[in-house]
Write a structure and sequence with these properties.
With 216 residues, this protein is an alpha+beta fold. It has a domain of 151 residues. The chain has an eight-stranded antiparallel beta sheet. It comes from Thermonema lapsum. Keywords: Signal.
Length: 216
């Protein structure tokens, strides 16, 4: 009887010991898994965040390689759209903080979304002529400017297109891609692309300008 009792005690303690070991092992595995996932997420976030910031650094570093153009010497339409002698356009760089845009953009803020901010300039309210400027943010943080789109709603689209075409050619050189009188694209030595295109919708004539980073 006593022998059987001792055997039961031995089996009991062995079971407790093995359960404790298994639990510790599972905890270690779970901790290792969590640490791995945390590191992977941090690496992904770090990589994603570095891209728009790299755009800004590259542009700011190489913007001096562009042909210097005095904005005050340009047509009134060009001055209205470009807005500043500094930055890529309107005083801003791709990769800038969206908060900087909200603080310094002179146009009226008409749409405040987490993915983009839209500003507007009235040209002729009676004829519904205006300029809409959209600053799109990066998909990860929504805090950095990833691209800029400017829509000019103007009946005389040809004149606006020609004036912007002349300005961009003077600033960036010959277009890298062009469909005569309809669309043209330029690449800046500061690692971004500008696309100028004429709108084809008869009810809303005008032009569209897109600023986007080159792949780094």
């Amino acid at each position: 009887m006593q022998k059987h009792y001792l055997q039961c005690l031995i089996f009991f303690f062995m079971a407790v010991f093995m359960t404790a070991c298994y639990t510790d092992s599972q905890k270690e595995k779970q901790t290792a898994t969590n640490d791995s996932l945390k590191t992977q997420t941090q690496n992904q976030n770090s990589h994603s965040l570095s891209i728009p910031q790299a755009w800004a650094e590259t542009v700011k570093k190489n913007i001096h390689l562009e042909q210097p153009i005095a904005l005050k010497e340009q047509a009134a339409e060009v001055q209205l759209i470009i807005g500043s002698d500094t930055g890529v356009v309107r005083g801003f760089y791709l990769g800038d903080s969206i908060q900087k845009v909200l603080q310094h953009e002179q146009a009226w803020l008409i749409e405040d979304d987490s993915c983009f901010k839209t500003f507007s300039i009235d040209l002729n309210r009676r004829r519904a002529e205006m300029i809409d400027i959209q600053y799109f943010t990066d998909s990860l943080t929504h805090q950095l400017v990833e691209s800029i789109v400017i829509d000019i709603y103007q009946a005389d689209a040809n004149a606006w297109y020609d004036k912007m075409y002349d300005y961009y050619t003077a600033r960036y050189g010959k277009p890298t891609k062009e469909e005569k009188g309809k669309q043209a694209a330029w690449e800046s030595p500061a690692a971004y692309r500008v696309v100028l295109e004429k709108k084809t919708i008869k009810q809303a004539p005008g032009i569209r300008i897109r600023y986007m980073p080159l792949q780094l």
